[in-house]
Amino acid sequence: MKKAQKAKMTTGTAVITTLECRLDNLVYRMGLANSIRQARQMVSHGNIHVNGRKVDIPSFIVSVGDEISLREKYRSNVLFKANFEAAALNEYPYLTKDQANYSAVLTRLPEREEVPIEIRCTSSRILLKVFTIRLIIGAIIRSLYVPNMSNHIRYFYEK
């Protein structure tokens, strides 16, 4: 969160970009796993390599240019093979897949519009908008009654 707040882009976009670059998420986007939980398990069991080295930390942040690949031992696994081939149609502009080597390269950071996540407006944001609208309406009403308000104030102070 601290890195997202210091980033040049908006904090929300930076958080989404960082979460999208997690190793377990990219394994899921590559199509090696059916779910994010399966991808997390694959990473934690050491089935995934980043730049040829075993990484078993699901929260590992993948940098631009890093190659993510399935260990050679597991490339003949029917489940992983079927998942990867079934996800051949799922293309993301920031990932370049190599079908023959069961690998992908993060070519660039994902843009907010490319991330397939729907974010709902929170209730606090809605309340803030309603509060702002009420303030604006109140200011307009007060501006219409300014002459009358000064008479009331004078009357109050004269007593």
Describe the structure concisely:
This protein has 159 residues and is α+β, with helices and mostly antiparallel strands. The chain is built from seven helices and five strands, in the order ααααβββαββαα.
What is the topological layout?
Elements: H1 2-6, H2 11-20, H3 23-30, H4 36-44, E1 48-50, E2 53-54, E3 67-70, H5 78-86, E4 95-98, E5 103-106, H6 123-144, H7 146-158
Antiparallel strand pairs: 1-2, 1-3, 3-5, 4-5
Helix pairs in contact: 3-4
Descriptive notes:
- This protein is an alpha+beta fold.
- Helix content is 48%, strand content 11%.
- It has helices at 2-6, 11-20, 23-30, 36-44, 78-86, 123-144, 146-158; strands at 48-50, 53-54, 67-70, 95-98, 103-106.
- Strands 2-1-3-5-4 form a five-stranded antiparallel sheet, with helices on one face.
- The protein is elongated and about 65 Å long.
Name the descriptors.
159 residues; alpha+beta; 5 strands
Report the average pLDDT across residues.
Answer: 77
Low-confidence stretches: 153-157
Give the CA-CA distance, first to last residue. 57 Å
- Mind summarizing the main beta sheet? 5 strands, antiparallel
Helical stretch tally: 7
Order of helices and strands: HHHHEEEHEEHH
β-strand percent reads: 5-15%
Number of strands: 5
Overall shape: it is elongated
Helix share of residues? 40-55%
What is the radius of gyration? Answer: 26 Å
**Spatial order of strands in the largest sheet:** 2-1-3-5-4
